[in-house]
User: What shape does this take?
Amino acid sequence: MGKRDADKAKKDALSKKGDAPDLRKLNRVQLLRLLRDATEENERLSTELAVTKERLEEAEQRLEDRRIAIADSESLAEASLRLSGIFAAAQHAIDLYGYNVAQSRMNQNVSGGGRSRSERPAEGGREDQPSGGDAGSRE
Assistant: This one.
């Protein structure tokens, strides 16, 4: 029986029961070829599965490392900020700013209708006039 006959017998065996060949109708060479093909396919799939499992484990490890790094960075950042006293310094700066704003408002109200000290008239009731302007010609 030649290769052509073996392929025809294989097709006939496959066509009767769908994908499952009727192994009783195949000769020894055909059976050995089927076994060899199945073994090669099995080895290929086993290798592919091993590679896929390795990639999956690596990806899971990277993901876990990132999760740990994120969790650690949040807690480390918070701890370092507290240890460096940045929160206390920021609160002190806010309090000082509020105090200075309140003092500035109080000084403006006391010094005469919202004018600052630099805007108050000089002694004699005259404001300092810039030289060479229209203000000097009005007097």
Q: What stands out?
A: The CA atoms of residues 110 and 116 lie 9 Å apart. The chain has three helices and no strands. Residues 122-139 have pLDDT under 50 and may be disordered.
